[in-house]
Amino acid sequence: MRTPTPPPHPKQPAAEAPTPLPEAVVDTASAKKAGAPRRGPLLAALLAAGLLVLCVMSAGIGAYHIPAGDVLASVAHRAGLGGHRLDRVAESVLWDVRLPRVVLALLVGASLGCAGALMQGVFGNPLAEPGVIGISSGAAVGAVGSIALGLTFAGNWTVTVCAFAAGLVTVFVVYGLSRSGSRTEVVTLVLTGIAVNAFAGAAIGLFVFYADNAQLTQITFWQLGSLAQATWPKVLAVLPCAAAGLLVAPFFSRRLDLLALGERPARHLGVDVERMRMTLILVVALLTAAAVAVAGIVSFVGLVVPHLLRMAAGPGHRFLVPGSALGGALVLVAADLGARTLASPAELPLGVLTALVGSPFFFWLLRRTRGRQGGWA
């Protein structure tokens, strides 16, 4: 005889199907099982060592070759750690031309890499990057507009201030348009970035139409991206913005890890999600504006570097945020070295070179993400 199934007790609701864990949590668990977090310090040490080697190489390689030993000796001599002084020409080439360019590449690359890691953590979206969602283009509009209009209200800081203000406005426009029902829509975020990039391109075209020949030369610099005009005053102009952003960003690593669990769990764990988002958006605008102000539009560094490090060491932001800064600096120093040596004596535009390498990676990333999620719609 078949026994009837008793109805559920009214005070004991039927068990619900378990809620699937967010992808970031699954990735974190998989990474821990694979021992990925333990690879973080080793990877950071390798990045730092590679960056040091590349900096010495970049300072020595060029039309006037300076051996690596002489580069280190000159730096040690200036720092009061021994070494020796080079001849007059070598000292001038090293300290007036090469080293400002290397330091500027370090600052710009670190800013873009760190900004990319923050954007992806804040929006929980692997496709988020200052260039993809239009922040770089918006900042470039501010910089190009200040050049075309001949603005000088802040002296040498005018271009940086205009780039920062335009980048900040762009960030808030994109963020506001991609929000719906207290959540950020991923597809709307990317589509808004496409629209902002198109509008920024049109605005830059308008400024180009009214600019004179001298201004056209400067505007071309912004559009192609380059570090050819690097000087110590430009390094000092971008240093405060980059340093402030790079120092603040690591303090949000733990809260970004909690945000990866989802907005509601993060709130329950004590994270003020909206305040954190607003603060980090300001940090991203600061880093991006500083980079764009001195180097023009250099795309894909903030997209490629965090992804490579996430695949190598897991999604934990305690390593990912500073690691992306290190990786971004490494990539940009290498790209700048390639830009000025691959077609020597001519120089390739830096932004063109990073786009040529980064675009195929972005296509691969789109297909990989689409394959995992089963499509966008």
Question: What would your notes on this structure say?
Answer:
With 377 residues, this protein is mainly α. It is 71% helix and 1% strand. The protein is built from 15 helices and 2 strands. It has a two-stranded antiparallel sheet with strand order 1-2. It is globular and about 65 Å long.
Topology:
Blueprint: H1 23-33, H2 39-60, H3 68-78, H4 88-123, H5 135-148, H6 158-178, E1 179-180, E2 183-184, H7 186-210, H8 213-224, H9 232-248, H10 253-259, H11 263-268, H12 273-295, H13 301-313, H14 317-341, H15 350-373
Helix pairs in contact: 2-4, 2-14, 4-9, 4-12, 4-13, 4-14, 5-6, 5-7, 5-8, 5-12, 6-7, 6-12, 9-12, 10-14, 13-14
Q: How do the helices and strands follow one another from N- to C-terminus?
A: HHHHHHEEHHHHHHHHH
**Beta-strand percentage?**
under 5%
Low-confidence stretches: 1-35
Number of helices: 15
Q: Rounded to an integer, what's the Rg over CA atoms?
A: 24 Å
Largest sheet: 2 strands, antiparallel
Oligomer status: single chain
Q: Return the average pLDDT rounded to an integer.
A: 80
- Based on Cα principal axes, name the global outline: globular
| Head-to-tail CA distance between termini | 50 Å
Kindly report the spatial arrangement of strands forming the biggest sheet: 1-2
